[in-house]
């Protein structure tokens, strides 16, 4: 990235996830690149879960944030291949999720032994860190989360599913 592109990146890097405000667009790994193409800036993003409409709000938020900073010569390109995966979430992002009370994705979907919806590792309770948890429902507050309950502290919690 050159200086100009870096400036654009810096303006948008802290845009929060509309649903989980502790996570930024960079934590999630949504921004693929920022590029100056003749007079415009082209920002390439890969949307997260298609089943999570709130997460696709990033595009509007990027345009608005840049406009508020006097930058309107912006194009957003959506890149669907390779598809977004929770593997792109940084470790820092997973820690922030846990602090927020949502159990972060446990597995790498790039692991060839991984089967969607079949977690081999224990989902850890974000409240008391117990491994003694059970899934209540495949779908939590949104389609991208599953609802779990901790057998130790009895608290229900959301688990951010791997995709
Ligand atoms: Zn617990």
TrEMBL record:
Locate the PaaD zinc beta ribbon domain: which residues?
A: 117-161
Signal sequence: where?
none
The residue ranges of the MIP18 family-like domain are 5-67
Q: Name one Pfam family in it.
A: FeS_assembly_P
Name of protein: 1,2-phenylacetyl-CoA epoxidase, subunit D
- What is the source species? Parvicella tangerina
Q: What does the organism's lineage look like at the top?
A: Bacteria, Pseudomonadati, Bacteroidota, Flavobacteriia, Flavobacteriales
């Amino acid at each position: 990235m050159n200086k100009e592109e870096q400036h654009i990146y810096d303006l948008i890097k802290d845009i929060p996830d509309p649903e989980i405000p502790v996570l930024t667009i960079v934590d999630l790994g949504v921004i693929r690149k920022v590029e100056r193409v003749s007079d415009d800036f082209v920002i390439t993003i890969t949307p997260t879960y298609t089943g999570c409409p709130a997460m696709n709000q990033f595009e509007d938020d990027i345009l608005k944030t840049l406009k508020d900073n006097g930058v309107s010569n912006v194009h957003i390109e959506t890149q669907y291949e390779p598809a977004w995966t929770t593997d792109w979430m940084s470790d820092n992002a997973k820690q922030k999720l846990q602090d927020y009370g949502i159990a972060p994705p446990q597995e790498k979907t790039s692991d060839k032994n991984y089967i969607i919806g079949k977690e081999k590792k224990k989902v850890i309770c974000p409240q008391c860190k117990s491994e003694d948890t059970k899934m209540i429902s495949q779908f939590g507050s949104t389609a991208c989360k599953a609802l779990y309950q901790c057998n130790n502290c009895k608290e229900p919690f959301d688990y951010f599913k791997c995709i």
